[in-house]
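Q: Start with the shorter request: fold the first protein.
A: Done. Sequence, then structure:
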Amino acid sequence: MGWHGTTTDTRRLATPQTREREPSSPPSIFSPFLPFPTMSVSLALEREAAIKAVAAASRLCQGVFKKLIADAASRDSATQTKADQSPVTVADYGAQAVMCALIARDFPNDLIVGEEDSKDLASDEAQPMRTLLLDLVNTVLEPKITESELLAFIDRGNHTGGSTGRFWTMDPIDGTKGFLRGEQFAVCLALVDEGQVRLGVMGCPNLPLGDGSGQLGTMQVAVAGQGAFELPLFPADGAQVTERQIHAAAPAGTPLRFVESVEAAHSDHSDSGRVAKMLDITADPVRMDSQAKYASVARGDAAIYLRLPTRAGYEEKIWDHASGRLIVAEAGGQVTDVRGHALDFGQGRTLKNNIGVIATSSPELQEKTVAAVMEVLKPKNLW
């Protein structure tokens, strides 16, 4: 399967697949315990393109970590700090440029909602980082691109999103702090059409495959109505790649375990502890960065993912949840906000109609978890 070579060929311009239209979508907020609507199109071309894009971006990220991040002396040259004090690295910029380039070359009319933009790369002071970034991106793209093309590809991610039309949303590195620590992070890409997530691909370079082999690097893929699958993110050259269908339901008798964010600013750990007690969960939580938490629920490693609000008014970003939400749903799990409302990806760049996120391995567990979370959060007046 050719997306795993040293470089990814961007020369082929594929004509966007003709897409059938479904009947009008249901309201964005609907009963969370209804099954996800099925679809009548395969999205085969989009699925293949997304797999290649995520694989190429993941290779870039691994290369950046080995060459720059792991070496403390070179880390500062590869990292900036955003206005909100969160870190951004050449890998964040590079992964977005690579995915935007590959999607744009295959589907030139498609819009993209991306996390990053190039404004902090435009100054004279940023010239060394631009040069470094261009060199890194050109290790995985073929033909090579210029500096102006690099910045333009990054800025293709400036779409505002919304409830009409079709667009991609991407998080080039979800969990940048985990990436910097050499722990969990994810490269995420999803396709949204008429406000509904139709395709999700997630690469987790530091998460072992769920087949028991211990091989690092998993990719999870889902198309609405077609199930969720796992495959190796970094297969050996020439190896036959086999996709394994994954299911959120763990074997009967498996103790319940939940995953949550490492960062206390992202999810209230004390509230999670109270929810766990109400659900009679005695196992310690697993804390990891990024949408790798969704990956854990989707293949039955954990039964519950809690992202509980830490303050009123915070709006989750769509790129932080689009891929993971679809993958868990297609694996048989459920994802809602803390009130039991479906996540609404048709409101722009954020989930402004939602508060927090709960993902579980089954509708029954979802209902119990939502009830427990509502009881714990009720005194906080978060909505």
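Q: Next, the second protein, separately.
A: Sequence, then structure:
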Amino acid sequence: MSSLSLSKLPPKSSFYSHSSSSSSSSSSSPVFKSKFIWRFPPPKFDNLPSCISKQSSTIDIQPLNIDDELIKRQELAILIYDLGLHLNVSFTCIYTGVVYMHRFFMLHPFQQCLKESVAAACLFLACKVNEMPRPLNEFTRHLCQLINQVHNNSEDFLSTSSSITTVGNITPEVLSNYNQQIIDYENMLLSTLGFCLNVEQPYMIITRTSQTLSIPKEIAQKACEIATKSIFFTHFTMKYTTNLIACFALYLAIKSSQIIIPDNQDGSQWFHLLNEEFTEKLLQELADEYQLICMEKSSKKSQERFEQIRQQTVKTIFLSTSTKKNFIFHRKSIVNNSNQDQANCEQSNSTTSLHDNEQHHYPIATTSGSVRSTTSSSSSI
């Protein structure tokens, strides 16, 4: 097998980050935090990089259909999950990796990237951020195994023009090329994210709200399933705040169960506990958007694979947030990780607030997250 070409990797000079102007600081303060906006207005989703035709002396990008672009995201989200499953990492790492992938492709076209390697780099970085690093060689071997499995069992799940060559054996030279490819994409990812690395999850919000409202556990688990599927199958994490995603998931779970949550004594409704600006109309709009995507804008293979994921994860996610303990996925079983007493579902270094245009719920996230090592530790494995 010949070594893999890295021709799709853009030059390092083209790496760029998405960030707003740095927050103002006084002249006496040499250190300040930058503000990053990782929520985009609706028009952005009609003009995603993969859906825009670009022509130059070096690049000729044929645009994707918007629905096809979303399906590619769904496939990579499931690939990240499967890779995390093989590597026995926490669902927090998987969730973080999926969000990184969504952020990356808000600014880069699929046509210009080796998408499976991007997915691996997203999870590779997410594991470091969540202090569960895995050897780079291990990442590469499991990624190749997954690509082989996908091509053998389901030709139409990932595109036939996979960026990873299907092989039976991996030579040291080829392994080194793959490793370098993931490292290069990790550097590109860091540049794109602007080192805004913390990611909030909706599960703790769902659990605490359910406990406050005395909602049955089965409905809370259903809400966790909806929240997870919304991250895997939609652009919600790039459109809406974590608070709103959690609220919408609870709203849809409650509505489908046909139970009634009484209004508060002051006349406010239950979802006002999360944000006084939320309305039933807004939550129903999200529910309609979510259901439309799940019914009409996702592949059958992705739906079938997510059903397996749902059976493996949702109950564990709910139990882990209830007990505030992290959890580890194994290929045949799921066990609690008793060595970690803090839930990674809460990112203490990240704070969010609503944008001035409140009705769209675009928060500005200010973070000080960092990674202790990005490439040096990886290359020495």
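Q: Describe the second briefly.
A: The beta strands are 35-36, 54-55, 60-61, 327-329, 334-336, 350-354, 363-367. The domain at 203-326 is CATH 1.10.472.10 (Cyclin A; domain 1).
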